[in-house]
Amino acid sequence: MANVTIREKLLSDGRVSLILDYRLNGQRIKQTLKIYVNPKDAKSRNVILRNAYDEAYRSAELLKNQVEHRLIKQEHDIPTSYDKRASFVDYFNRLAGPRNYNWQSVAKRLHRFTKGQLPFGNVTEEWLSRFQDYLRARIQDVTVCSYMGIIITALNQAVREKLIAANPILNVRRVRGEEKPPKYLTKEQVQHLLDNRQGIPDWFVEAFLFSGYTGLRLSDVEALEWGDIQPSSTSVDQAKQLMVVKRQIKTKTEVRVRWSD
């Protein structure tokens, strides 16, 4: 039976943050409600402050009831073959193993956020929203959108394998991000860097210049193969008519960069 408790967390400014405290599949969850009260207002002579205090607790109680209802519904909707305590982190790592750089990045973020402990039964709408907020505090929205898409793919795979009954992310309001235009170094800035390269290995400088002149991300440079270097024309002098043709790992778009010696 779901047992959710409203608890208070004292803040440095004297206010109290209301949180929900409950256990889900053996894991203790503390959910911040972003509702704050001043304990002194509970017995204040000011009717407005007293009413605001009571209203805050009524809002917290409503959210508590919603969480309890969701947990109870989840308990009854889980199929008998569903192992609630199986590790989603381990499952995701198995899926990410043979896949590209973005999957590896999500796996690292997932491990940091969960400390490697996340049962399948705890992958709820609320948890997914918190994970998305965690990502947004650290990376651009366009990348968050891509990473959450990978989480969706993993959960859809789990549904197909009958590890879970449904994908809980379907009701999560996902962030929508647009790619920001890239920033470029001027010729003067590049020359300044070259003039102050003392102590920097040549291989590092050459790799930096290659990325700078082609506009390729580090992940794309690391994945570059000889087959990505192609002739750009049917000219007899092919050595002076080469270009990089690379499908970017992050955006999945194809980039073509021509150069000549």
Q: Your description of this structure?
A:
Helix 2 runs antiparallel to helix 3 (101-114). 43% of the residues lie in helices and 16% in strands. The chain starts with a strand and ends with a strand. The chain is built from 8 helices and 6 strands. The strands form 2 sheets. The chain has a 3-stranded antiparallel sheet, with helices on one face.
Give a short summary of the structure:
Helix content is about 45%, strand content about 15%. With about 260 residues, the protein is α+β, with helices and mostly antiparallel strands.
Number of strands: 6
From the N-terminal CA to the C-terminal CA, the straight-line distance is 72 Å
| Largest sheet: number of strands, sense, barrel closure | 3 strands, antiparallel
Q: Average pLDDT value?
A: 81
- The rough form would be described as elongated
Oligomer classification:
single chain
Helix fraction bin: 40-55%
Q: Order of SSEs, N→C?
A: EEEHHHHHHHHEEE
DSSP helical segment count: 8
Low-confidence stretches: none
Cα radius of gyration in angstroms: 26 Å
- Give me the side-by-side strand order of the main sheet: 1-2-3
**Structural class by SSE content:** alpha+beta
Strand content: 15-25%
